[in-house]
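As noted in the main text, all predictions were made from sequence alone. Below is one such record, for Nuclear condensin complex subunit 3 C-terminal domain-containing protein.
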Amino acid sequence: LDECRASLAVHPRKLRELSALRASSSPGGRFLPAFCDALTPLFEVLRRSPASDRVARFAAAFASSSASAAADGTGFLEGFLRFLLVASAAAHRPARFRSCQIISEIIMQLPDDAEVSDEIWDEVIDAMKIRVQDKIPAIRVFSVRALSRFAIDEEDGGIIDIFLETLEKEQNAEVRKTIILSLPPSSATLESIIESTIDTSESVRRAAYSVLSTKFPLQSLSIKQRTTLLHRGLSDRSTSVKNECLRMLKEEWLVKHCGGDVITLLRFLDVETYELVGESVMGVLLKDGSVRVQDGQTIRQYFTANTEDAEQVSSIKLMEAEVALYWKVMCMHLQAEAQVKGSEAATTTGTEAAVYASEASDKNDLLDGVLPSTVAEFVDLVKAHLSAGPNYHFASRQLLLLGGMLDFSDSMNRKVASSFLYELLNRPLEHEVDEDGNQIAIGDGVSLGGDLQWAKAVSELAKKVHASIGEFEMVIATVVEELARPCRERTADFMQWMHCLAVTGLLLENTSTLRSLEGTAIRPSEVLQSLLLPAAKQKHVDVQRAALRCLCLFGLLENKPSTELVKQLRLSFINGPDLVSAMASKALIDLVSWHGPQELDQAIGTEPSDANYEKTQFAPVDISDLNDDDLNVGVLSILFSGFHKDDWEFSPEGDNHDNVPTILGEGFAKILLLSENYPSISADLHPVILAQLVRLYFLEESKELGRSITHISPLFFSVISHTP
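Prediction:
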């Protein structure tokens, strides 16, 4: 044993010598007592050291070797295990630690054909279950390792239950990591392992991804679980965790379960629902070089020519959602690489610059070979998918984003694209008809087609096609003017109102100043007076909400908020239905953040001296009984009174962001965080706001509120950490 302390290299020879000595001893002799006596000093060492660990490993290797475990009638292994079990229950900490260490090593090294009685194993399991609760973390680690081999084959689930219970309350990261590595794959352990991917310890998170990679096939995980794991792992702050997640994605999911086909992998991720995750997966695989354009792969392969007729007619094969996402991300990646190489070529000289320029040229040539050959083909491709119905809406949007990579310098290309954009902007909102024959708009009615991403794709293409100064505003304003005619004539139904407001919002979102709308088909004053304010007074709730959103965008573009605009937002917040009040509160918070509360109050004639800027409390306001003509109450007091209204309605299936208290809580938290930007708000009001946020955060009267308050948790804790 002394010689084994010095080096692991002598262990094989010493194992043979000790085995020969044991074989020469008579059955029932003194070998076991002598061996235990010689090993006893190891249990007295207070400090763990490499030398003592080598002796422990030697003892475990000897006990678990095939010669030691053979049924030769001496019962050495069982006797030695009982000796260790006695030490595992000792009050002396080093004795418990060494016994658990050696027991775990024996169990991990023991051959499957070792003949050990069930009775001794029951004693070992019972003793290690007790030691899992030991106060020393290192002892808990080895006891978990000792039980791990039994957890795989057990039927009653007792060990797994102990592991899961311990994992929930365990404070030591090394113990949690060992439990994660010891859990067998099953539906009972999967959720706990997935939860460990957000553990505070980097090593635990890495271990969780390692276990998920090796023990759980891709098909055994739900789509939600797959996307959650990738979202967490690929955005983890630790490089080692990211690498482990990437290894799982590449080596296990992509290569092993999908045969290296990235399209098949994207099908497992439901990219229509989890688009951002799909884009992240494509991005990291492209950056790593695991995915590249194969020879013959191109978007043009979806155009098939029919030459049977006298005139050649092209037909288009529709893309699946995964294929469309693949090509969008691939083309964006090629374009970004070409731009990077081009920039590097411009900032270097000589041979290095020539190399970069050549690489940029290759990337551009590859991109040109992948994209549709003409703008007309691009338009036909998108139109074909739009005409295919809602099932291809996602693919249509992915393909629409490719338009930003095409060349519109030619006047004919611009003409074709401009005509296509006109069709898109005049495309009516999608809707359904209920049992009573009423039309129901699909989407939130706030953005083009009810899809924020679709509206963004249309605006990006429009800005690319109409890139000259003022041209974008001129073209979109012309469409708004056409759509606004039935609205101004009061002959429009709610769907026409929604469509007009959607395009108006698109215009206001992408305009830097109202001056750019002067001289267009519809002037800013007409937009406000003839369209937005009348829309805010419509009976249909969705029309009101869309109008209030546009009023907010309009107010953000004004140098000073107009009187009619502020009055309407104020009135909608006080008297509107809950969904309308929610949109009005968003608008008022945004305008307060942009212009300041004093500007909004002055717009409606409230004098600063009558407002709350120099007071220590907000004016008590009951918005349920507030007179519409009472303009002496400041906007902050009105918004703050929303916290005290107790009859807000909350839909468990609705969006948390539509809850008025949540919106107000987020808004006032931002006001506190950016208080230096609002000198007109008295510092004496800051404790009042903070106290209300604390009450809101800990409110327990409503389960719906409890759900919605989680949205402002990060802001709440930011306020706490930044408040003196």
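The chain has 35 helices and four strands. Confidence is low (pLDDT under 50) at residues 309-313, 608-613, 651-656, 701-710. These features were considered when defining construct boundaries for the mutagenesis experiments described in Section 2.9.
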